[in-house]
């Protein structure tokens, strides 16, 4: 489902990042592990087609992501990839339900109210549907962002440091939810983390260990 070969990238003025090859089967889980600055967010951005590989290739569901351009890449991303970002980017002036509806509108698609309702129930946040983001706890807001990532039933779900600010109980709950919801939609799951608790919970999953990047690299 995900296949990388000799993948590498350099941000302008940043270090040369080179990533070991990975092969992840459909429905599998990959943990991206590495210290701060080792390139986890960059790898996720390459998988989502938000960056173009500087070296090598990344294929997602048989599609070479770097081969897509412009609007075709945007359409591919919208149909294929769900992202749970580190910063959730919920719209402060919109209710939970309208934040989810916005995901359709932003893609130029008709709003699927039934899919929204189903996800609110599945993630146990249906009672929050009229709340504004400022009235949500951190964990609740993360569930809303997860619902948004899953609305279009992505084949690939990318989560960037989903447990960074959570206590142990909330961490275990968030990871279990990620695993369950990815399974529910049949998505391949990639979690970028330097959290030992996540590594323990996904014991047995594929791990891509990123090399630390020296300041002078
Ligand atoms: N826009 C940018 N311009 C220049 N350098 C960048 C840029 N974005 C990232 N970098 C550099 O690329 C390297 C990898 O960054 P990246 O954000 O992918 O790491 P990370 O492992 O996700 O870090 P963190 O865990 O702190 O989020 C770092 O050295 C960073 O300073």
Automatic annotation (TrEMBL):
GO MF terms held by the record: ATP binding; ATP hydrolysis activity; transmembrane transporter activity
Name of one Pfam family that matches: ABC_tran
EC number: 3.6.1.15
All copies of domain ABC transporter, residue ranges: 2-217
Positions of transmembrane segments: none
Keyword Iron-sulfur: no
UniProt KW Hydrolase keyword: yes
Keywords of the record: ATP-binding, Cell membrane, Hydrolase, Membrane, Nucleotide-binding
SUPFAM superfamilies: P-loop containing nucleoside triphosphate hydrolases (SSF52540)
Gene Ontology CC: plasma membrane
InterPro entries per record: AAA+_ATPase, ABC_transporter-like_ATP-bd, ABC_transporter-like_CS, ABC_transpr_LolD-like, P-loop_NTPase
Name listed for the protein in its UniProt record: ABC transporter-like protein
Phylogenetic placement of the source organism: Bacteria, Pseudomonadati, Pseudomonadota, Betaproteobacteria, Burkholderiales
